[in-house]
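agent> Task received from the user: take the single chain below, predict its 3D structure, and emit structure tokens. No templates, no multimer pairing.
agent> Plan: (1) validate residues, (2) run structure prediction, (3) serialize to tokens, (4) report one or two observations.
agent> Step 1 OK, no nonstandard residues flagged.
tool_call: predict_structure(input=
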Amino acid sequence: MVSAAVGVVVLAGGGVAAAAALADADRTAPTRYWMAEDHTTGGTPAPVPSVPPNELTGKLMPLPANYWPGPDLDPEGNYYYLPSDKALQSFKGARTGLSSSERAERDKSLADLKLKGMAGRSYGRGEGYGGAVAEIRLIQADPQQLAKFGEFTKKLIELTAGGEAPQVEGYPQAKCGLDDSLKGGKDGKEKIDALDCVAVEGDVLVTFRMYGSKGFAVKDAASLFKQQLDHLKSPGESA
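)
tool_result: status=success, residues=239
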């Protein structure tokens, strides 16, 4: 969804160019719209990766009841933290083929972002509870620049949404969009529904995607996103 606009907005200035860099980094690994055996109740749960605790990973929602570690989000795995220097390297390596002026604009925008770090985690829900995968990424940076990125991402969600999405109770600034145009499964023909959401809380931007086929409920996805936002505001109080 987001990567389609990157080629255009990377030429823009300020926060939008930074948004393009971040958006593209979010989509560097191809999305696999199906869960392997070890991410469902039909297999053995994968062990929870060991990630050194820090302020940002503490803001990631713990595994809820009936959820297992999900598939890898990118080369860092399904549960990771990148400090500012490594996150910058990841963003700069995400786009190839840029001209020297485009690279200079991107690098300036990333510098303005004052990136502090990035963390991500995926969550697989067992088939007995409506098989689905949720992906959550947190970006910690300058609040003003994140606000610009958040508004940009919300507009993209509005433009690409294929159906009516629920509101997130208690978070009027959050935006969600339903994507009902996907195909997946092992044969690539199974209908997949997905919910994309974004919200900014202070110096942290949260991007959320949950997708599934049979048993996938949009209201459940919105509820899980709310759970993440609750945890972000009060770590330790959310399940």
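agent> Step 4: summary for the user.
The first strand starts at residue 67 and ends at 69.
agent> Done.
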